[in-house]
Specification:
Elements lengths: L5 H8 L5 E5 L3 H9 L7 H12 L3 H5 E6 L1 H4 L9 H7 L3 E5 L4 E3 L7 E3 L5 H10 L4 E8 L8 H20 L3 E8 L7 H21 L8 E2 L16 H15 L6 E4 L6 H14 L5 E6 L1 H11 L6 H19 L11
Parallel strand pairs: 1-2, 1-10, 2-3, 3-6, 6-7, 7-8, 8-9, 9-10
Antiparallel strand pairs: 4-5
Helix pairs in contact: 8-9, 9-10, 10-11, 11-13, 12-13
C-alpha cells in the first residue's frame, strides 16, 4: 500500500536498509555521462537507460524512492506505461527534483545560491498530481580559503526551509540537501567545521518555517577530506567524524539521513556508509541517495547497446544490494567479488 502521510512516506523510503536512486540528472548532466560512453543524449536513449534501471530486480529489494527529473516523471516506457508507474510497481516511490540550479551569490567568487522558489508552489502541485511523493532541493557550499561566508550559508539554508514548507503544503516529503562540496585541498577538519555550521543553520531555518521534521529527510555530504588534500582520511575517521557532526546538529525526530556520494568512488561510498552503521547508536536511519555511485557501473555495462541491457541491470542490482547491506551495517569488501 502506498503511504500517504508525510511521516509514513519518509519512513517508507528508508525502511529495512532501503535507500534512494538519484536519477534526477539534468539534461546537461546526463549528456556528459552519455558522452563518456560515446552515446548521444537523445530523449529515446535517456528513456531507455532509465527504464532499464527502474525495471531492475533490485529496485524491489533495495530502493525505497527514485528522484526524477522533470522530463522523466512525464516519460512513457517502451510499452506505453508511465515510468513513474513502473517505479511504483517495484514498491518504490517516485520523487522529483524541484530546484532550478545555481546562480552566483552576491559578488564573492565561488559562492553559489540555489534558485527555484518562484513558481515552486505551482510546480509542486503539478508534480503531486503526477504521483510524486517526495521532492529534492540541493544547496551547494564550496570551500576555499575565504569561503563559505555565513551570509551564503544562511541564504541557502533559508531557501531550503522555504522550499520544504511549500513541498509539505503540497503533501510531499522534502529532501533537504545541503552539500558541502568535496572539491578542494581542505582537510577533513575543515569539512567538519563547514558541515556543522551549515547543518546548524539549516535546522534553525527549518524550525523557523515550522517544518514537520518527522516528514522530512536530510541528504548531506559525509565529512571527508578535500579531493586534492594529501592526507586522505581513513574509512573509520570519515565515519566517526560524520556521526559526531550529525549527532551535534540533527534532531532525533528526523526519520532518516540519506547520504549523497559527492564524487566518491562506488566502493568508498558503500564502505563509509557501512562503517557508520556498524558504529551505530543513532536515532535516525542512515542510508543512501546515490546517483553516480549507483549508476556508473551500469552505465558502462550498457554502453548504449540494447544487447547489454541485462548486463547493465546486473551491474545496477549489485551496487544497489551492496548499499542496502551497508545501510544495515552488513557489508564487507568480500561481497564485492561477483
Amino acid at each position: 500500500m502506498i503511504p500517504n502521510t508525510l511521516k509514513d512516506i519518509a519512513n517508507y523510503i528508508v525502511a529495512d536498509g532501503k535507500g534512494i536512486l538519484a536519477a534526477d540528472e539534468s539534461t546537461g548532466t546526463i549528456e556528459k555521462r552519455f558522452k563518456s560512453i560515446g552515446v548521444d543524449s537523445t530523449e529515446e536513449n535517456r528513456r531507455k537507460y532509465r527504464e532499464m534501471l527502474f525495471r531492475a530486480p533490485a529496485m524491489s529489494e533495495a530502493i525505497g524512492g527514485v528522484i526524477l527529473f522533470d522530463e522523466t516523471i512525464k516519460q512513457v516506457s517502451s510499452d506505453g506505461k508511465p515510468l513513474r508507474e513502473i517505479i511504483l510497481e517495484k514498491g518504490s516511490l517516485p520523487g522529483i527534483k524541484v530546484d532550478q540550479g545555481l546562480i552566483d551569490f552576491k559578488t564573492v567568487n565561488g559562492e553559489k545560491l540555489t534558485q527555484g522558489l518562484e513558481g515552486l508552489d505551482d510546480r509542486c502541485r503539478e508534480y503531486a498530481s503526477l504521483g510524486a511523493k517526495f521532492t529534492k532541493w540541493r544547496a551547494v557550499i564550496n570551500i576555499d580559503e575565504h569561503i563559505p561566508t555565513q551570509d551564503c550559508i544562511d541564504a541557502n539554508m533559508n531557501a531550503l526551509a522555504k522550499y520544504a514548507s511549500i513541498a509539505q503544503k503540497n503533501g510531499m516529503v522534502p529532501i533537504v540537501e545541503p552539500e558541502v562540496i568535496m572539491d578542494g585541498s581542505h582537510s577533513i577538519d575543515r569539512c567538519y567545521e563547514v558541515t556543522q555550521v551549515s547543518l546548524t543553520s539549516l535546522f534553525s531555518h527549518l524550525s523557523a518555517e515550522g517544518i514537520d521534521i518527522e516528514g522530512t529527510l536530510l541528504k548531506p555530504n559525509m565529512v571527508i577530506s578535500g579531493t586534492t588534500n594529501e592526507n586522505q582520511a581513513s574509512v573509520n575517521e570519515v565515519a566517526e567524524k560524520t556521526l559526531k557532526c550529525l549527532l551535534a546538529t540533527v534532531p532525533n525526530e528526523l526519520p532518516g539521513i540519506v547520504f549523497l556520494s559527492g564524487g566518491q568512488s562506488d566502493i568508498d561510498a558503500t564502505a563509509h556508509l557501512d562503517c557508520m552503521n556498524k558504529i551505530g547508536g543513532n536515532p535516525w536511519k542512515l542510508s543512501f541517495s546515490y546517483g553516480r555511485a549507483l549508476q556508473q557501473a551500469a552505465l558502462k555495462a550498457w554502453n548504449g547497446e540494447d544487447s547489454n541491457l541485462e548486463n547493465a541491470q546486473n551491474a545496477f542490482n549489485h551496487r544497489a544490494l551492496m548499499n542496502m547491506k551497508a545501510a544495515q551495517g552488513n557489508w564487507n569488501e568480500k561481497l564485492e567479488a561477483k
